[in-house]
Each structure stands twice: as C-alpha cells, then as structure tokens.
Amino acid sequence: MKDIRFVSADEAVSHIPSHCHIHLSSVASVPHCLIQALCRRADAGDVTDLHFHHFHTEGPAPYSEPRYEGIFFEQGFFVGPNVRANVNAGYADYLPMHLGETCRLYESGAIKLGAALVNVSRPDAQGRVSLGTSVDCSVAAIRNAGLVIGVINPNVPYALGDLVALDEFDYLVEDDTPLVTASFAEPTETEKLIGRNCAALVDDGDCIQMGIGALPNALAAQLGGHKNLGLHTEMFADGLLSLIKAGVINGACKKIDTGCVVASFLLGSQDVYSFIDNNPSVLMRTIDYTNNPFVIAQNPHMKAINSATEVDLTGQISADSIGTRIFSGTGGQLEFVRGASMSQGGKSITAFASRTAKGKNKIVPLLNPGAGVVTPRADAHWVVTEWGAVDLYGRSLQERAKLLTSIAHPDDREALDRAAFERFGPHYHNFSV
After folding, report:
1. What is this structure's pTM?
2. What is the bridge-based pairing of β-strands 382-385 and 347-351?
3. 349 membership: H or E segment, kind and range
4. Which in 258, 285, 295, 298 has the greatest CB count within 10 A?
5. What is the predicted pLDDT for the residue at 43?
C-alpha cells in the first residue's frame, strides 16, 4: 500500500490546479469540507477555472453562484433545486447525459478529470472503504482522476458492493459532517390514486424500479399487500425501505443479485443510511451496472416506474425540462425504460398527475417549445395518471391521442380531442380504441 497522508482540507485542495475538471461525490454525500476549502482558495485569488461534475447534490452549492463566475463553473449531470436557478440564469450549466454512461465519460477521457473529491466510510480490516450512499460514477472518477482526495467520514455507512482500496487515494481528510437527510411530503389524494393505478400493474414476484419523492412513496404504500418483490434501481428512500423491512421486497424471484436490493445512490432519512451499513442484503453498485439496460433486463417481470413533466399526444415524454427551463436531468429514465421493455414480462410505466399544482395540463397537444424529449414516443409504453392507465405499445399516433386523452383531466379532454382532430383530420373520430 502506498503512503497516504492525512492532511487538512485546505492542504488537500491546495494541490488542485487551475483549469481543472473536478468530480464530486453526490446527493446526500457531498464532501462539503473540501468545497468550503476551495471557496477559501477562490476568495484568496489562488485558483481559477474549475469545472465541477456530479449527479445532483444536496446542501450549499457555492460552485454555481454568480460571485464565483469565472472561477467555478458548474456542469452537473443532473440539476437539483440548489443549482436550478443559477443554471437557468446561465451562471451554471447542465451536461445532458444518461447517468449510466457517466462512468464511461470519465474512462474514455471525454472529460479529463484533474481531481476526484469524495466522501468515504472508515476503512475495513483489508484497507477498503465504501462510498456509502453515493457510489454513482465515483469509482470511475477515482480511477481516472489525476488527483484523488478522500474524506473519511464516520457518518458514511460501510455499504457493501463496489468498494475502493485506500491506496487509490492521494490524500485523506477527516471530517464528521452529517450526511444530508431528506423527508418527503405526505402523498396527496391525487398521488394516492396514481399510486393505486401503478400498483395494479405490479404483480407478486416482480422486480421494480422507481425514484424518490411523494409519488413513489404513494406507490410504495399501495404495494404492502404484494409478495416477493425485487428491487433493482438507481436510488431508493424511506417508502421502499418500509417494504424491505416488511419483507414485501425480498428479491426472492430475481434472476441476478437474488435476495439483494441493488441501488447506486440514496436520499432519505438516517434510517435509510443506517440500514445499508454492513448489510449483506443491500449492494450499492456503480451506476454503469445499475443502469445498464442489459443488466436490468436479466431480471424478468421488471417494472420500471418513472415520471414526466409533459407528455404530448403522440407519446413523447419530457422529463428534464419545462420548455427551455432545465428542471432536473435525463437521469436513468430511458435506460430503465429500455431495460424493462427488454425484460421477459417487463413493463415500462410513466406516472404523473394529469395537471400541475397550478392547474396546467401535463398531457398536451405539443410539448412546450424547447422541451427535452427524454423518452421518445417509440419507447413509450404504459402511461398512468390519477384517471387511469393506458398502454401505448403497438398503437398508432391517432390511437395514442385517443388513449392519452382518456386519462387526461376531464376538463382538458375536449381541447385535446379538438387538437387531435385538427392534427389528424376528419377521419380521427371514425374509429375507437
């Protein structure tokens, strides 16, 4: 094992050169002590032109702020609430990327990483550390960056799966900043209806994927009566944890990683983080494994459940933006859509409320100008709202328009029907689905 020095955060980041691309471990496990040290260097005029790459991050994000314009430049693979305003104002940027391909982005040299800054657990007896709640593309970053700084934090759980040897680090820093926790609002009545409609598409023994938030929690609450579910997902939170603890999710029917929960990053309560600590039934894997469609498809009856900001009448699904305004990111949606579609007996499901909180319809004749299509219409299968569920697979454009109109908000259906008539002509009403 090479000689690794424990140093202060300020000394560690002093070795990062200007004009450098930097990877950050993400979501709940951001190395905030190193970011703060970089801010001190920037305030002293000691560094410039640093580019930051990561999944979405929780907590302060000074690397996106106008005061560091020309010094820091945010180029994340997913846009969280802490950088959204600055991205849309142009002070920061978004790098569109299927999350499962981010490892290859570093490995291929498409982004030449100068440094990787990551939070890690305490080492085990073999000198290995875990990336805990945020494995994502950090292993690839560690193995391809010119400089690797690890923050050993006792709050990072020792999660099994993809581990890293201590001798892959150049500098180590000690810090005990707690990981960011998150709670999610109780599901609304609309979200409960959506959850019920989604749950009707999930059978005992299925393997599921879903995200985090009130809507996934609403779905999880509807799955309590199911048996022998598996979980292979990018991420999970407290809603799914309750199903794991209850034995509803046990992985018994999975063909790969049988009996194990597989994920790449987490965001939730401390209960979630404690649960994965030294837990052999949870594997925290790199994102190029969890999001690989060919891996996903190996589990039969895969049910991938994702969301949307808008869906047009032909089945184009926008999920990363609202018009030209970037809202989140491509994420792993299309990877799981395709993996589930290739799975024997699998289903891809897009679930969302028919209207926004402000009453704007989300099933629309045309996507807002500038909206990003995350799932192309050729990949769109099941679409679910509080008004029902329809399957677009094998359906023509006119059939799709009728099906999608049927699950739109009742007050929006007449306008959608009229728009479809204007688009497809007078024969549109001459058949039923």
Report:
1. 0.96
2. parallel
3. strand 347-351
4. 285
5. 97
Instruction: Please name the residue ranges forming H helices in 256-315.
Output: 270-276, 287-290, 293-296
Q: Would you give the distance in Å from CA 166 to the centre of its chain?
A: 28
pLDDT grade for 429, boundaries at 50, 70 and 90 = confident
Amino acid letter, residue 310: E
Residue 210 corresponds to which tokens in the numbers above? Answer: 């879903």
SS3 12: helix
Choice among 58, 74, 191, 234 that is catalytic:
234
CATH number for 189-427: choose from 3.40.1080.20, 3.60.40.10, 3.40.50.300, 3.40.50.11270: 3.40.1080.20
Question: Is 234 one of the annotated active-site residues of the chain?
Answer: yes
Angstrom distance (rounded) from CA 125 to CA 13: 28
pLDDT tens digits, residue range 290-337? 999 999 999 999 999 999 999 999 999 999 999 999 999 999 999 999
Q: Do domains 5-174 and 189-427 have the same CATH topology?
A: yes
| Domain segments of the chain as ranges | 5-174, 189-427
Asked which of 2-16, 77-91, 412-426 is least confident by mean pLDDT, the reply is 2-16
Stretch among 63-67, 213-217, 291-295, 334-338 having the lowest mean pLDDT: 213-217
306: amino acid identity, one letter: N
- Checking if the pLDDT of 125 tops 80, the result is yes
Any residues with CB less than 8 A from the CB of 171 and at least 6 apart, and which?
A: 4, 5, 6, 7, 11, 12, 15, 147, 148, 149, 150
- Residue 361 CB partners (closer than 8 Å, separation 6+): 354, 355, 408, 409, 412, 416
Q: What's 81-125 look like in SS3?
A: CCCHHHHHHCCCEECCCCHHHHHHHHHCCCCCEEEEEEEECCCCC
Residue type, position 163, single letter:
L
